[in-house]
Design goal:
The chain is α/β, with parallel strands linked by helices and about 550 residues long. The radius of gyration is 31 Å and the shape is elongated.
Length: about 550
């Protein structure tokens, strides 16, 4: 079975000058069609039909012959039928054979994958159809018009998913039996449609088409590995979700431990694709199957062996908050919470690389009022040291103070009721708030732990008292007085009386709170996600 693929490509293009030879994502546009055809094992020969010297040279560069067409076949009004017929005759004469199948392969469909082309040809050779036309199924509620006005092209208004198939031709390929290739037609008697993915059907006619295609060709597959549970907290999951939301145009997959329920449920609620694992070996198997371009590991300290394995499974490996031996081997290690002295090129540390959620990027800082009316309290998604309860007991002492409210925000894994954290006369309790900025912007001061929340409060300029959850949090150097925080140290070692006296002092010192807010706002925290995106994608 001899199969010939013809790629028609004129030199003239009014919409996009030199369209077929211009570089798209680093390669001439026509190169994609040539390479796709050459990767299809069942295609016997590939040829380019052209009238252009530059296209001729490029075809030679990519190792395919050229069929030169005369002026009579190069005019704007000439259809493809005589062009393909001319190319087939010349290739048959050159190779001394008669082909069984002819494929017209358009140079203007760079997103067509070799797998789709091979699948279409395989099915065609097994089918009894004479012609296959590439198409996409795009059902819509459509209308037409005649002399009587507009009328619907449907019988019943239904949701798109319920509408009957509506196939639109794609310019990607046209497969037909040789006997039906003539001067005026390539259509056989029995015609069938081969449905291709919508992404692969883009045909470049306009500048906008070009922009869309080039963006798709730059798309990368990014796998995020993170967990969220009581002992660790939910910050790693929140950070990865925020980064994933920012990677529009790229393919994202989450991988998490199946027994880390809080993190798993949060990822599921985001509707990102997610796969669960029980151990590292299963993660490696997922990576072998998915073949990502980038692995983002947000699971704290790594070993050399772990990162070395990841680097065999993806071109780029990025790790977060990694103080382990593997950090030196990753393509990039981002430690926004730690000001590491390491000068290695792959290290990015400090507040420049913090990931703020969209709501914080869009929300303006608060205005500092002379009187404290609202105290915001938030100790992370799990609060393993139960600092929430200690500040709650403090808030109860102020039940009779007029116009003073404490606003507590607890994470999904903190059981408020079990700890007696409930609404009271001067206390409002919220669990798993979707837009925490709506509550933060009402605050005059705050209590928090020494994790990522300090950056969120800093972005809004809320003067804060900090209690660290554990010794690792104490390594986070941002939450200090020079940046607008009163850091009392490890929460388990701070006496309740110290917490109360610090609160009372800060509540009564307007100028100090105003100065703390000013110090917080000296940092450009909102640009961190832009910097990190470039690091993740290797740009």
């Amino acid at each position: 079975m001899k199969v010939l693929a013809i790629i028609p490509a004129r030199g003239g293009s009014k919409g996009i000058p030199r369209k077929n030879v211009r570089l798209m994502n680093g390669k001439p546009l026509i190169a994609y069609a040539i390479q796709h055809a050459k990767e299809c094992e069942r295609i016997t020969d590939v040829a380019v039909s052209t009238d252009d010297e530059e296209i001729t040279a490029l075809a030679g560069h990519y190792g395919v012959p050229v069929v030169l067409r005369g002026e009579e076949l190069s005019a704007d009004a000439v259809t493809l039928d005589p062009v393909i017929y001319d190319a087939v005759l010349k290739m048959e004469a050159k190779n001394g054979c008669r082909y069984d199948v002819v494929i017209t392969l358009q140079a203007t469909s760079p997103l067509l994958s070799p797998e789709t082309l091979s699948g279409a040809l395989d099915r065609f050779l097994e089918d009894d159809a004479d012609t296959y036309i590439s198409a996409t199924n795009a059902p819509h509620l459509a209308w037409s018009k005649n002399e009587n006005g507009y009328y619907p092209l449907y019988e019943k208004r239904l949701n798109r998913q319920q509408l009957p198939p509506h196939y639109q031709e794609a310019g990607a390929f046209f497969i037909t039996k040789r006997e039906f290739v003539t001067q005026n037609s390539r259509m056989g008697k029995k015609i069938s449609v081969y449905e291709i993915p919508e992404r692969e059907a883009t045909d470049i006619d306009t500048v906008n088409d070009w922009i869309v295609c080039e963006s798709q060709l730059k798309q990368k597959k990014v796998v995020f590995r993170c967990d969220g549970y009581k002992e660790l907290g939910m910050g790693h999951v929140y950070r990865c979700l925020t980064l994933a939301y920012s990677l529009m145009g790229h393919e994202v997959l989450f991988v998490t431990r199946g027994d880390r329920t809080p993190g798993l449920e949060k990822i599921k609620a985001s509707f990102f694709p997610c796969r669960t694992i029980a151990r590292d070996e299963e993660f490696f198997e997922v990576l072998k199957e998915e073949k990502p371009d980038v692995i983002v590991n947000d699971c704290l300290d790594t070993s050399k062996e772990y990162i070395q394995t990841l680097k065999t499974l993806a071109p780029r490996v990025v790790t977060f908050e990694d103080l382990g031996e593997g950090a030196a081997l990753a393509d990039a290690t981002i430690n926004a919470l730690y000001e590491t002295p390491d000068t290695r090129e792959n290290q990015y540390s400090g507040e420049k690389y913090i990931v703020l959620r969209d709501e914080f990027v869009l929300t303006d800082p608060i205005a500092i009022r002379e009187k404290v009316s609202n105290v915001f309290v938030m100790f992370g998604g799990t609060d393993p040291s139960n600092l929430t309860q200690r500040v709650y007991r403090l808030a109860q002492k102020y039940a009779d103070v007029p116009d003073l409210t404490f606003t507590f925000v607890a994470g999904v894994s903190y059981d408020c009721a079990a700890h007696g954290i409930v609404d009271a006369k001067n206390i409002r309790v919220y669990q798993e708030v979707k837009r925490v900025t709506d509550l933060m912007k009402q605050a005059d001061m705050a209590f928090t732990s020494q994790g990522r929340t300090v950056f969120e409060l800093a972005s809004m300029g809320v003067p804060s008292i900090v209690l660290a959850q554990n010794s690792r949090e104490q390594l986070h150097t941002f939450a200090q007085m020079q940046n607008g925080f009163l850091n009392l140290g490890l929460g388990s070692e701070v006496h309740d009386d110290t917490i109360e006296k610090t609160f009372e002092w800060l509540r009564s010192t307007y100028e100090i709170r105003k100065d703390m807010s000013r110090l917080m706002q000296q940092h450009d925290l909102k640009s961190g996600i832009k910097r990190i995106k470039k690091i993740l994608l290797g740009e």
